[in-house]
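Inputs:
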Amino acid sequence: MVFALSLKIFWRELKSGYLNSSLFSLILAVTIVSGISLFTDRLEKALSLESAEFLGGDLKFESNEIPREEILEKAKELGLVSSQQVLFASVVYSDSELQLSSIKTVDSFYPLIGEIELENDLGKFLVTEPPQEGEVWLDVRLKNILDIKYGEKLGIGDKDFIFSNSIIYEPDRSSSSFAFAPKAMINSFNLKETNVIQPGSRIRYSILFTGEESSLSLMNEYLESIKRTGDEITTLGDDTSSLGRAIDRSGNFFLLAGLIAVILSAFTVGISSQRFSRRHTNYVAILKTLGMNASSLKLFYFLLFLYMAILSLSVGLALGWLIQLNFVDLLSTYFPSKLPSPGLEPIFISTATVIICLIGFVYPHVLRLLKITPLSIIRKEGNTLERSSKLMIIMALISFYGLLFLYTNSILITSILFIGILFFSLLGFVLVLTIFGRKLKTGLNAHSPFSLAVSELKRRRYSNSIQVLSFMIAIGLSLIAYSSSTDLLKTWEDSVPEDSHNNFAINITKNDINPINEFFDLKKLDKVSFFPITNAKITKLGKLSSDEEMPVERNFNMTWTYTLPSQNKILEGEWFSNNSSDGISLSEEISERYELSLGDRVKVTFLDKEVETYIQSIRGVDWESFSPNFFVIGSPNLFENNSSTYITSFFIPPDQQNIASEFMRTFRTVSIFSIEEIINQVKDIIEQVSKALQVILILTTISSFFLAFSTLQDGFQIRLHQSAILRTFGARRKLITRSSLLEFSFLGLVSGLLAAGLAQLGLYFIEKEVFEVAPKLHVDIWIIGPLSGFLIISLLSIFLVSSIIKKSPKSILYGE
Amino acid sequence: MILSTKNLRKEVSTDSGTLVILEDINLEVGKGETIAITGPSGSGKSTLLGLLAGLDDASGGEIFLNKHPLHLLNEEKRSEVRKENVGFVFQSFELLPGLTALENVMLPSELNSRKNAQELAQYYLKRVGLEERLNHYPRQLSGGEQQRVAIARAFACESKILFADEPTGNLDPKTSDTICNLLFEVNSESDNALVIVTHDSELASKCNKQIKLDQGKII
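Outputs:
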């Protein structure tokens, strides 16, 4: 019986439009949440595919030793596809020129992911195969240096190769290590014939794996367990490259946008649920009077909610799907290939959003209704419905926290957001109560619009403060979305300036420095800094000499300088003060990963020497900057007299790339390689994210607008009755319109001010903790916030009040 | 003559076509006169009262309220006429829940920008026997008390004509009697005309004149 009744009432309510506002809010919530999360899911997958392409696989194992057979067997056992590469340095010679180059040999499985773009006399083309036996591919720079034509011979060690193609783009660009450049690629079949690999040669062997996520994770665990000194494992997640960071950062932008949508939706559902419960007061009264018991009523509402959830989910998910298709369409030019299909997570998040909203924001209202006696509901005794019970507040807060956690998956971010919003809500509440808390004059003071507005503001200070909070959330979150898609994105764009260093030069000797500076002067290139660089190992020493030494299983590139590099900042300890008490400085990542703390005694092993010192400082390093960055920086006092080579980075304008070739010809022993490709890719990602964020910003604004409108509509529902009484006794429309306009424009102004505060605080946190940029004062939001609050709320109130005064007082009072 | 109608007509559009609610209503109410509009449910009593008080638009015919042609005026102008001339008592009291009894009664005087709104409200509340309940909110008052506040509010308009729509419809018989007596008693102290819609034959019998409606027509 309950089932049939609930279905009947749901259908009737749906038909009569009573459910419109609650359903509309839920549908909007699902649409936005699913639209954004479906899109971000696909985008993240695409970006991680790109990142996998950059790595050359899903997992990479590098070693200085020939790969052990057991590794390959394990990969086979786990069903993973693997590809092996060998990297080494060798001289490559054509008829007229010779050049020290990086040689990459690839097996028949190459490339595991993506395609290689090549060029020859016939033009550019894509392949998914390695070079044929006897063939060599060169990067464009090496081709220029060697001054060689397609089809001509080229020697590597004892073997002659035919130069068939230039490499324009290769998927596994991350393998272009600093030490090996420019590059030549040959088939591994020919490796032996070259005879260049001799005992003691510096060779890097790598194996790339792709396959099922679970198998990859098992392989990763296995590799970790057999890892030896000098071995390195790279997975997609721990990418500290500029590209990896860019992908991470774009994920943060989408997380932020999605989160804003979730908060807005939750508030909208919360507001419309109040209307739902007001309307259902009579249902409960009548059903109770007719003898329906509490458990049947609970079941009745459970079913009603279930129908609402099913309907809002199906419509919302369908609309969300259309939105993400639209996003994909918008950005299609930025994606080279088809976007991967979304996973199930977005659907789970959307469903959970609906369930949490219904249970947290709507159901407590019903539970409270069920406790009230039919008579008191019919007689509306004590006006109980207008007040929130403790249960409702607690349920709403728990649900809100749950929603935030569902989306952020981080207790820290959830708690900061939760406390931040709660703090500003309380502040707004206190502010409104303080402004209008003074003693009331007797009467409604309906003789003029101004006095009526002031009287209403004072009288409705509690309900007004709730409205202010709601407006504040709507405006504040839109401001955050606006600022993120403009200011933050701009900061990010600025972090990759047009003149970012697009070339690195290594293997520079002390004697090369002056000629290089002269070369740069001649070519009118900017002055550069040279950093000495050496390979070092760190061993953590115990407090006492008898304590066990703990070597760190990894080699680091180390430099020494008295000047703190510009993209570094000291987080703990002190920078070197040019005296004998100086030690070394570690990057934050290394300090955390290898549990090396400030003040720890360490032994630095380099160039067959050992130096005992201590950790003097921990540095934050901007890995996104396109300059040489170091995990370890030592005090020159300790290291400067040791022989080393130098590294530098510089900018060559894209239209003067021949300078790079000239540089290579002039400084034969110096290796130079371009990171132009990486810079362009980071810029591309920024551009993609920027486009998507603009669409999301529009959606966020629509949902904030809807929240503001729902809140106002709720407020005007209460005013409808009052306006009818006032007009019965002769109040002119002007009085009601003007007093409402005054009242709401003031509330809009206060909300806008609070919203600016909320947005400023939110942005401070986002800038500092999420995007790791220097927080700043956003003057624009302090202007846009109050102004938009004033204008939007005023305009909406004019729209709503005009719809009220259009109705005759009789039709309102008689419920016609 | 304070109120008169000529061939007054009201119809509404429904899904199944136009529905005539009132047809050919002609009536006259003089100064200080009391008139009861009676009839079965759905006969159009409340609709007629709404039209007479200028709360709604007529579909045809004429209404003159204190010489103002309501049928020619828009809602804005009608509200001016109501402010000067009309007091109203509703069946469901229609007090503003956020205002005290005193403030509810002050409302019409405030809209007329009268300086003595509070004194006037106090006077009428005392007159209806609620001098002890001035600062009570509607939810703190019984149904009878709420209707007394509504009566005080209607008289505080100091209007030319007072309309009452089933003023005792929501009250028990004893309270009904009290309210009914009060309404006539206070009205007798002014030269207000009083137009009451009622089912209560006893209440109707106290009026100078009775009009009976059936299916939208005076019979």
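Remarks. The helical segments of chain B are 45-52, 75-85, 101-111, 117-127, 143-156, 173-188, 201-205. Residues 29-54+83-210 of chain B form a domain with the Rossmann fold fold (CATH 3.40.50.300).
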